[in-house]
Amino acid sequence: MLELQDVTAGYERRVPVFRDVSLTVAPGEAVGLLGPSGCGKSTLARVGALLHRPDAGRVVIDGEAAAGWRHRAPRARRTAFGVVFQQPRLSADPRLRLTDLIAEPLRANGRGNEVTYNVRELAEKVGLGPELLGRRPHEVSDGQLQRACLARALVLRPRWLVCDEMTAMLDASTTAALVAVVEEYRAETGAGLLAVGHDRVLLQRWCDRTAEWSDLGASPGK
Amino acid sequence: MAETAPETAKTAPETAKTAPEAAKTAPVTWKPAGTVRRSTRAWRVRSSAVIVGLVVLAVLVVPPLVQLDEQAVDLAAKLQPPSLAHPFGTDDVGRDLLLRCVYGLRVSLLVGVVAAVVATVIGTAVGAAAAASGGWFDRVVMRLVDLFSSVPHLLLGIFIVAMFTPGVWPVVISVALTHWLSTARIVRSEVLSLRSRPYVDAAISGGASRWRVAVRHLLPGVLPQAGLAAVLMVPHAIFHESALSFLGLGLPTHQASLGTLVQAARGSLLAGDWWPTLFPGLFIIVPTLAIAGLAGAWRERLNPRRRSELML
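The joint structure predicted for all components is written out below.
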């Protein structure tokens, strides 16, 4: 169970983007979060994935309240979340080849010996051929790069997936392919999903339930 | 389809390339604005590379090869204008100026390169530490940087040199300690901008430690900028060495450096002997512009949008 309780967060002291927002994702559940742009839904997703410290409120993961964010969160807690962002260009280190991009979380956790097998298999799953794996981000398309970013999010087999507008930059066929990969992974592992977006049709078809930003008890920050 | 994007991206440079060719064959008299500037830029980069190559060759190869004493005094041949025996002429005690210029360039370049490297290391460390820790530490360090920046470099440099006995190393220390400030600013802002990129978020979520994020993602992103700052600093450092020596505070007068040579030539210039001033002066200006030209080309590759900025 991932519970966000009365979260207030923002990027400036005393000027929160939103106040007192609550959202719950049950184990294995897929929740779509819909809202207008700029409302703070991405920020809420980052708070949930322990990447942004909220000004107030609690994040409770499986009954245990999170005490630290970013590097202050214990490694096992951070890696329980697989995160995919909206813009693949910004979420991939431009210097890493796609293989290293996907393998980076394994290496960061001292599991570099598993790289060869895991990366090849995952790349195939997300639809990246071996000839693409040796390329750097600027040598592949947005769609191909987002496939690699999804593989990177899955490589540690997280219990929660946070997809922050994952398909906003992509065309319909790539969107369908990536959603299928996420669903296959969830069917296999029972991972929960928080999908943020403003494509109502997509999220309603993809997720078990969708939450409307205005229904979350959100009051505007200012 | 998003997968077709590389193809369209590949065709873009080809269409750009056809523009100059079209200008060549077309009977119209005007030229596209980009073509002239592009060719002069290529020429500038090439000539800069040749000059820097010659300088490195002269500095590394000539002294061990010729084995002449650049301090050999020949009073019978003092203050001779340029000739075949002495292409740059001789100074007021008959020392060959070509030889002294080459040796002087060697000393000045050594000072310039070492000082630039030391200053860049200090600046990178301070800037990265300030950006990484943030909060009060960042604020205090950057205000100190502002404080030191408000004092003229040369004045601070003179102050530092005055604490030591004259020699090469006090000059290096003085130039290094006065030139890391701008690098610290550049590196700090670069780290701050890199740190907020989503790929750092992704790395944290993937379990990367602070150290791993810094070494694997932040430092490689900053190094090109820091390296460029170092190269741009070399000519600046040579200027400062020359200025300190010219003021009589840098190197002792018998040791040939570009600054001491110009300084020693002051008296003879008033008597109408132009060569002891002109040639060391050219040795300061030409390699300096060449290094700056190469650094400018590097900067254009790093950041094509800043093309219009000055080179120095």
